[in-house]
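Tokens in:
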């Protein structure tokens, strides 16, 4: 089975954790016999902004156009965007970028059997254009904001629906996403729910400290979607607690300033994105992991925290309710600092069974995820 994976959500030399959840799933899939795979992971560029150190466009310039990751060749063609505008059709730009390199990737009679597209817009729409052009089956994976955000915009929704209707199978990482797609008119028979797995050799409670955790933990990009400001405001009302925030993003300076204004700087540690396997120790030593997102598909942060035996406090959005129960965390109905503080005051007094929290997540294994994915691909062919 020869697979062409198409998505901008894929790690690269400059941002090794970007889209790590996509790579993890496909890396385990690659271990199945008679599988070969190539990846097209387009990279945004804008000529002028690429000259300014510190901008993501300057970083993108340094991403190699071709690299090898665990015996899989990953191509990073450039597609142009104009930040803050919709003057350029991103899906069309991605498709054009891929079209230029496909004859080189598959010379002569070489070809692929199936297009594996991740994130419905613009990536999935571009994957559809490629699959249609080469008359190949298409599998699309919906991951969260592609459904919750982009399908609320009429122009983008029309393109996404065209891609979804062409696809042989649609994979959702949560039942909540599946239900949303059904509401948009996609047949339930076409949709398969495959929740992301967890590497149990890394994320487990085997080395969890016997004593109570040392701090509260938040892991995620520093962007409005993740709601870090609510966590800082709640921390200000919990004077005995410390917080570690792991992530980077456009709000970093603003959040550090907020910590100063709230006079919690001495109790907050900001850490940049760290190697994925090093996160496990942070989860194990934490009292609770907090996620205050406004929308989600199935947050890997929650899965990894629970696998590590650490209870979760999270907003009740997306697929969180499918894994967070009264035995492993608290779901917050309101996305406010007061609601978070109230939940933390309860959670910090609760006698959590950390071993049980971890063991209850044993079914979320990447090998099983890969087997389900393989069955889905076989059916599509």
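Residues out:
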């Amino acid at each position: 089975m020869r697979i062409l994976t198409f998505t901008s959500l894929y790690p690269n030399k400059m941002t090794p954790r970007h889209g790590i959840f996509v790579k993890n799933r496909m890396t385990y899939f690659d271990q199945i016999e008679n599988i070969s795979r190539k990846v097209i992971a387009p990279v945004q560029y804008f000529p002028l902004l690429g000259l300014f150190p510190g901008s993501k466009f300057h970083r993108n310039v340094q991403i190699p156009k071709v690299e090898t990751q665990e015996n899989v060749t990953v191509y990073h063609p450039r597609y142009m965007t104009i930040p803050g505008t919709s003057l350029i059709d991103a899906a069309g730009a991605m498709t054009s970028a891929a079209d230029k390199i496909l004859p080189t990737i598959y010379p002569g009679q070489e070809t692929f059997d199936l297009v594996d597209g991740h994130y419905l817009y613009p990536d999935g729409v571009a994957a559809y254009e490629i699959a249609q052009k080469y008359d190949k089956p298409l599998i699309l994976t919906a991951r969260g904001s592609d459904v919750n955000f982009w399908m609320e915009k009429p122009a983008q929704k029309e393109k996404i629906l065209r891609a979804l209707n062409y696809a042989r199978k649609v994979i959702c990482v949560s039942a909540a996403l599946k239900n949303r797609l059904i509401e948009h008119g996609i047949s339930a028979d076409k949709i398969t729910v495959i929740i992301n797995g967890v590497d149990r050799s890394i994320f487990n409670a085997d080395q969890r400290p016997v004593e109570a955790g040392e701090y509260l933990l938040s892991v995620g990009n520093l962007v409005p979607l993740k709601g870090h400001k609510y966590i800082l405001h709640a921390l200000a009302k919990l004077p005995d607690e410390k917080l570690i925030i792991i992530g980077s993003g456009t709000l970093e300076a603003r959040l550090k300033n907020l910590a100063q204004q709230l006079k919690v700087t001495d109790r907050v540690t900001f850490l940049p994105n760290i190697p994925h396997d090093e996160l496990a120790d942070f989860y194990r030593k934490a009292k609770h992991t907090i996620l205050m997102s406004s929308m989600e598909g199935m947050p890997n942060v929650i899965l990894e925290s629970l696998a590590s035996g650490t209870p979760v406090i999270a907003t009740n959005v997306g697929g969180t309710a499918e894994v967070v129960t009264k035995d492993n965390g608290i779901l917050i109905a309101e996305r406010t600092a007061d609601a978070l503080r109230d939940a933390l005051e309860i959670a910090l007094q609760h006698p959590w069974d950390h071993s049980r929290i971890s063991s209850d997540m044993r079914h979320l294994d990447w090998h099983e995820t890969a087997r389900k994915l393989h069955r889905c691909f076989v059916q599509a062919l």
